[in-house]
Amino acid sequence: DDWPQVAFAGRSNVGKSSLINALVRLKRLAHSSRTPGRTQRINFFLINETLYFVDLPGYGYAKVPDEIQRQWRPMIEQYLLNNDRLAGVVVLMDARRAPMDSDLQLIDFLSRHDIRVQVAITKVDKLKRSERARQIKAIREAVGSHAQGPPIPFSTIKHEGREAVLSVIADWIVPSAENPVGTEPQNREGEQG
Fold first, then answer.
1. Which of 13, 20, 23, 51 is the most buried (most CB within 10 A)?
2. 73 to each of 43, 69, 165, 172, how far by Cα in Å?
3. Where does the pLDDT of residue 44 fall: very low under 50, low under 70, confident under 90, or very high at 90 and above?
4. Is the distance from CB of 37 to CB of 63 less than 8 angstroms?
């Protein structure tokens, strides 16, 4: 169909599913797991019959068979490069970790292909104030000018950053419009997305 798509990408266990659930205010729209690498397909969630949130498989330390990991790269690249519905990609980075080469390579790849990028720094509530400021600064410097704007600190526990991420998404899909994804998604019982 013609609905725009916003993809969410990041390392395994960075909190993609939790962030998606926080954005739509549902606890179990996107399934989250304590075991890294559970998302092994591209998952589409239709939000308010306005757009899709797209949960991409995580990368990094996922404990999945090498054969499956080798299949992910061409699948994800094909999705990203051959998709005229893609409005942008929210790249998640864990506040407790230094930016990894894989994070920066993804951001560089998206930037080189003129795909909009917004970095969200997850799990900021797990850091002390001084650590948080230092990590946000390190991520901001590592990302540089490749992202659309400065990284957005995000906490699913304290509900921090939700409105800022939704504002970016709204600008991507309907510039200067009211936030189209700020209300509850239409999700009938038993259906996903």
1. 23
2. 15, 7, 26, 25
3. very high
4. yes
The closest alpha carbon to 34, from 21, 20, 15, belongs to 15
**Torsion angle (degrees, nearest 10) of CA 75, 76, 81, 85:** 100
- How far is residue 19's CA from residue 21's CA, in Å, rounded to a whole number? 5
**pLDDT more than 90, % of the chain:** 51
Identify the CA nearest to 19 among candidates 117, 123, 172, 138. 123
| Look-up of token digits 């998302």 | 39
The answer to whether residues 7 and 56 touch, using CB atoms and an 8 Å cutoff, is yes
> d(Cα 15, Cα 39) in Å, to the nearest integer?
11
Q: Please report, as a single letter, which amino acid is at residue 28.
A: R
Residues in CB range of 33: below 8 A, 6 or more apart? 17
Sign of CA dihedral 24, 25, 30, 35: positive
Q: Residue 189 pLDDT > 60, yes or no?
A: no
Contact 57, 42 (CB under 8 A): yes
